[in-house]
Amino acid sequence: MNVLIRATAFAANKHRNQRRKDADASPYINHPIALADVLANEGDVADEAVLVAAILHDTIEDTETSMEELVALFGHAVAEIVAEVTDDKTLPKAERKRRQIEHAPAISRNAQLVKLADKICNLRDIAACPPANWTGERKREYFEWAKAVVDGLRGVHPVLEAAFDSAYAAKPSASSLA
Ligand code: NDP
Ligand code: ZN
User: Fold this and answer.
1) What top-level branch of life does the organism fall under (predicted)?
2) Ligand 1 atom nearest 131 alpha carbon
3) Are 29 and 116 in contact (CB under 8 A)?
4) What total of structural domains would you count in the chain?
5) DSSP string for 81-132
6) Four-CA torsion 152, 178, 133, 139, nearest 10 degrees
7) What would the mean pLDDT of 157-167 be, rounded to a whole number?
8) What is the pTM of this model?
9) Percentage of the chain lying above the pLDDT 70 cut
10) Structural domain containing residue 15
């Protein structure tokens, strides 16, 4: 039984009608796969629970998936990591973003790894294939918020933190008209 492939098939099905926010409306599943790729192949992370949680990280937040479903199919350890990186969607957006900064230092090391990979991938996406209609200022705000989250978990994985810093270097300049 290959759990990583099973999780990928599960997430692909859950996200099957969703698209990323870039102009090409890329398939949603590209993003969770990118996180697992960053963790495994740039960060040398071999812990299966972390890689599986990366694949599943947006299922509770963005699809009809319950914690119970993840526990039943992938076990407590994986489900707990996903829960730790899931925003409370009943809260206003600004409060959710504030809480991510506040909680980053306190979540488990495994959840910090998934969160770090998520921020790396989203900054790379904003640089290469940004949400359609985002201004330069909106991109800058996102870069700065992502850095505030990552600054709260520094020390968890220096190689991936360096990858984040490289991605952050692409922050649009204040004068950018993009
Ligand atoms: P969103 O949360 O709406 O969009 C960013 C999220 O979209 C990412 O975290 C990522 O989440 C997902 N995503 C999907 N496709 C892409 C892609 N191609 N590139 C990068 N990310 C992608 O935006 P904000 O994070 O900016 O949240 C809204 C906040 O922005 C509010 O708090 C508000 O204050 C502010 N705002 C600012 C405006 C401005 O013009 N400055 C206008 C409106 C709001 P995931 O990993 O979960 O998929
Ligand atoms: Zn994500």
Assistant:
1) Bacteria
2) 18
3) no
4) 1
5) HHHHT---TTS-HHHHHHHHHHHTTTS-HHHHHHHHHHHHHHHHHHHHSPBT
6) 0
7) 99
8) 0.96
9) 98
10) 3-176
Residue 137 CB–ligand 1 contact under 6 Å: yes
Residues in Cβ contact with 58 at an 8 Å cutoff, skipping those fewer than 6 apart: 11, 15, 28, 31, 32
User: For residue 82, what is the domain's CATH number?
Assistant: 1.10.3210.10
pLDDT of 175 reads 77
Contact 157, 117 (CB under 8 A): no
Ligand 1: centre distance to CA 61 (Å): 14
Rounded-to-integer distance, Cα 5 and Cα 171, Å: 34
Query: Is residue 151 lining ligand 1, measured as CB closer than 6 Å?
Result: no
Is 141 an annotated catalytic residue? no
Residue-level pLDDT at 177 = 61
Catalytic site includes residue 61 = yes
Ligand that comes closest to the CA of residue 53: 2
The response to whether residue 74 sits with its C-beta less than 6 Å from ligand 1 reads: no
92: its two tokens: 């206003």
Q: If you average pLDDT over every residue of the chain, what do you get?
A: 97
Q: CA–CA separation, 64 vs 9, rounded Å?
A: 15
Q: Is the dihedral of CA 143, 147, 149, 150 positive or negative?
A: positive
